[in-house]
Amino acid sequence: MPVKVGITGGIGSGKSTVCEIFKLLGVPVFEADAVAKQLQNSNQKIKKVLISLFGEDIYTHESIVDRKKLADIIFNDEFQLSKVNELIHPAVREEFENWLKKQNSAYIVHEAAILFESGFYKMMDFTILVSAPEGQRIERIMKRDGANREIIMQRIKTQWDEDKKQNMASFVIYNDNENLIIPEVIKIDNNLKLHGKIW
Length: 199
Known about the structure:
The protein is α/β, with parallel strands linked by helices and 199 residues long. It folds into 2 domains: 1-28 and 106-199, Rossmann fold (3-Layer(aba) Sandwich), CATH 3.40.50.300; 34-102, P-loop containing nucleotide triphosphate hydrolases (Rossmann fold, 3-Layer(aba) Sandwich), CATH 3.40.50.300. Helix content is 54%, strand content 12%. It has helices spanning 15-24, 32-42, 44-54, 67-74, 78-101, 134-145, 149-157, 162-168, 181-195, and strands at residues 3-8, 29-31, 107-111, 126-131, 171-174. Strands 2-3-1-4-5 form a 5-stranded parallel sheet, with helices on both faces. It is globular, with a radius of gyration of 17 Å. 26% of the residues are buried.
């Protein structure tokens, strides 16, 4: 079995950029958030429950989940957010386990925005947190998505505090415009391929 490395980071931290570097190094990356989005459209059980929770109009006429409508609900209501997570996380876990069986590399990366919050970190051998100051994260998201500061802050509040995640992570990559992340990722890649460890 490949070594399992979980990568997470708050919104705007740059975890997707770090994962892109791993991909360029030939490492298989399981994108949990993308899989979760796809399951909302393809998994009939999930669709049925989402409709029962939020009504038929949570899906468009093309049977695609209305992501803005769903986000507006769950990021303003912790109870509804937990209900959706309880529905989707087991299905994502099953997809990951099936995907993992097909991999034959020295290690794999499991990318998830809420790796710690969801409990997925327990399945990993190592965890990496991509960290950046909150102000930088907000600026990045405003530029990337055109979202306003209030909406971004609502999203940030649904994720665990940065200090808590840093205390739980095996390793922290600082993506703060001062530290170079490519050498960090290359060093981790070499260590995993040579020694099966991230340091």
